[in-house]
Specification:
This protein has 73 residues and is mostly helical. The protein is 82% helix and 0% strand. The protein is elongated and about 35 Å long. The model has no long low-confidence stretch (mean pLDDT 63). Keywords: Membrane, Transmembrane, Transmembrane helix.
């Protein structure tokens, strides 16, 4: 979805600035949704504190990989 939106924005020169801010917002929103998905997938608040830290690190790594894909396209 973001890739299609970027293609549309870069073809419309007058929307590049507004599109940039919107794509950044969509990126952080998607990162937040991925983090929530991983928290629910791994059990959320039922986990011990150490396990939650590991899940947070996993979500952070997943987010970094997503960042790499975001900037490649």
């Amino acid at each position: 979805m973001i890739l299609l939106f970027k293609i549309y924005v870069f073809k419309k020169k007058d929307l590049v600035l507004n599109g940039h801010y919107l794509s950044v917002f969509l990126f952080f929103f998607n990162y937040f949704l991925c983090f929530l998905f991983l928290r629910v997938w791994f059990g959320g608040s039922k986990l011990s504190h150490t396990k939650e830290k590991n899940d947070f690190r996993l979500a952070l790594r997943f987010g970094i990989e997503y960042l790499k894909l975001f900037f490649i396209f």
